[in-house]
Amino acid sequence: MFLVLIYLTEFSFTTFKSPDETIKPSSWLNLFYNIDPLSGFAAGISSGLLYGSLALGLIIIVATIFFGRFFCGWICPMGTLNQLLSSFSSERESRQGARLIRANKYHRYQAWKYYILFGLLALAVFGSVQTGLFDPITLAARSIGMVVIPALNSALTAVAMTLSNSSIKILTWLGTGIFAAASGTLIYFKQPHFHGIFWLALIFGAVMLSNRVFTRFWCRGLCPLGAFLGLISRYSIFGLYKIHNKCTDCGLCLLNCQGGDDPHGNVAHRRSECHLCLNCVAVCPEDVLSFGFQFDPADYNPKPDLTTRRTVLASLAGLTVMPILRSGVIAANNRSFIRPPGSLIEDDFLERCIRCGQCMKICPTNALQPALLETGFEGIFSPLLMPRIGYCEHYCTLCGEICPTGSILKLETDTKFGSSGTTPTKIGTAFFDKGRCLPWGSGVTCIVCEEWCPTSPKAIWLEEAEIIDRDGNRSKIKLPHLDPDKCTGCGACEYACPVSGQPGIYITSAGETRDPNRSLLLRKRK
Amino acid sequence: MNDNRMERRQFIKLTGKAAALASVFGGGSYILSQNIYSPKHQAAAIYKGDRSPDIDTDFPDLISLRSKDHAAAALEAIGLLGGISRFIARGDIVTIKPNIGWDRSPAQGANTNPDLVRAVALACLDAGAAKVMVTDVPCNDSRRTFRRSGIDDALKGTGVEVLLPEEHLFVNADLGGEILGEWPVLKPFLENDKLINMPIIKQHGLSKITAGMKNWYGVLGGPRNRLHQEINRSIADLADYFRPTLIIADATRVLTRNGPAGGSQTDVETHDIVIASANQVAVDSYACRFLNLDPQTIEYIKQGEARGLGRIDGYSVQERI
Hints:
The complex is a heterodimer of chains A (526) and B (321).
Chain A: H1 2-10, E1 14-15, E2 24-25, H2 31-34, H3 37-47, H4 57-67, H5 70-74, H6 77-87, H7 97-103, H8 112-125, H9 131-134, H10 136-165, H11 169-182, H12 197-210, H13 217-222, H14 224-232, E3 238-242, H15 252-255, E4 269-270, H16 279-283, E5 289-293, E6 300-301, H17 308-326, H18 346-352, H19 358-362, E7 368-370, E8 383-385, H20 398-402, H21 413-417, E9 429-432, H22 438-442, H23 448-452, E10 460-468, E11 474-482, H24 492-496, E12 505-508
Chain B: H1 8-33, E1 41-42, E2 62-66, H2 70-80, E3 93-98, H3 114-126, E4 131-135, H4 142-148, H5 151-154, E5 161-163, E6 170-174, E7 182-186, E8 194-198, E9 200-204, E10 208-210, H6 231-241, E11 246-255, E12 268-277, H7 280-287, H8 299-306, E13 317-320
Parallel strand pairs in B: 1-6, 2-13, 3-4, 3-8, 4-5, 8-11, 9-11
Antiparallel strand pairs in B: 2-12, 6-7, 9-10, 11-12
């Protein structure tokens, strides 16, 4: 069921009624982000305010106080995937019998996730939200939306295309049939492309494959959201109740245990590790186990297995990383990368962005791409606008509409492109590379940039000039010029420029309105 | 028993599995290596771009009507040209090509008037057309442009198919022009019995005017931004290949500045005029008056005339403006 939900949240259903209206995304798309308490908490402590819909995460927190980590066992999409991969039968000996039982007992590595959490939260306190890198919701959605679905799309299109191009009639029908059936659901309107998805694929693949060695290794050992909920679950009033003297040590509960929380008899139950999958209760032949309200502290172990020293060390590690990240040169004034329109000023942006990739998935032109190291180590997987791949659609405000944390503000169309009285939101400024521009550099007619320029009046204007070729022949040509005051940096010109590779016109973030220190032109104040 | 010893049966099974896997992967990668993303090549002989009707001297070459009721004006103009049955026969597959190039609302004058498109499409259905498709290959994202232009909504529930230009719907066709050789074309513009061009008249920075003939840019996929280097010749090439059954040109409002995308309503002049003709050169020559241009100075129109697609002057006009 949660696979269906994941699928739903991956697709950009947009609603739109009349031609003059802004296109709005469906509110279902953010469901998982909105209930993800870790994103809300981390973005909250770094930016000092809880952004709108993330408050829904409180529901999960309150419910965790009652029921423990039910989220991990019953809601989390990453957990669902991990469970599926763990429960395939394996011929590996370590995945069977006594060795599986041993592997499913509690292990020290399960404490790593708490230290990861402490490190990340320490970073967040200092204003850098890196939880998104490890948060299972963002990790799963990012990987599925940017790796799995585009790859599926590509493969399915390839198969259907090959079939429908074949000269055998039945195969042609089959190919056309696949297009007809999958169009709009599994086959996207157009193939999405994402920059550097190999790295995303590698991380996701590693997490998925680790399940084949240790059951739900990610959930048990690495997941900071699991750790967060594990810490809260110590107050839970609902837990596993064991009748120790009835236990025959048959090991069936351990064979089926998801969390590695020691459900078997004669040891204390580790509540912070339990996913509440209830497998143990279902398989126990002696009726030793039952879930219910539990108040006797002697019977369970509410606290995670942490040492103070390591907790302090992990937090300190987070604190140490912060100044290293911020003192890198990228953060200084020389950066040229372009953020989506409506993005907060860079420091505030990094305080909020949880790297969920929603903006990149909804962007109709595929312009928004996950950063690798372009914005420094701190900005890994944050959104960048890459005009050679796509441009910022003049009337589109979808990235701001979808952003679950407010890193990209919701723009109304007149605040985006400006109207009488409002200045447009500028994400950068275009510059000509006159050596590469066809009319300027080679005396060849072009002006595609002027044609595409979406502002009115156009930021790109044409001058008719006379040129002389190598034989001394004179001819007229239109030379494009840029008016930086009108340019919004949308990148349509760079996208449409017919010069492949390095374009003849390109955008840099100079003059972006989100940062007053980076404005380009000096203007009279009155 | 020795666990490590493989039995003969097991060995054969394993080899069989390995061979099957190898052939699946081998075959699969062979297929994938065959450049399946590029559209299928179609010889131009399969499709002929010429859909022009027989010449009938009983009717004027061009009709131009002014009316606040744009849909009625379009139908009346078609009537004055001899009626829809002169152009559309029972059972025809009809493709209509409005200009839906940009993510702009109808009032901004960058896309063809949705009322006109609806009126013409329904007239074709009434004339007994088996299928009427409306499509274009926009510059901006097509999902947005089709909606924002109002054309998607105008045709909802009418039985007219509005087709989004998905990547797999392009085929390579040899257009046989001076500039344009083999080029990806959206299938419905080739696979049809009748082709109706429904341009809007706008200013353009390079060709000065975009009306009927330039509208054919929108049937192409591929790197069409390269065509601007020879804009006049490539427009003439396209008009030479795609000869429409009928042209209904939208001069209900004309984008006079910042074309072809526009953006501000201050760039738009209202004329409330609908033009109908079966001749491309006549329509584009006539359209020049809305931008105060002399058609004899427009290079692509002159080339169109030189190729025998029509005459810049000397076509018969019936107007009520």
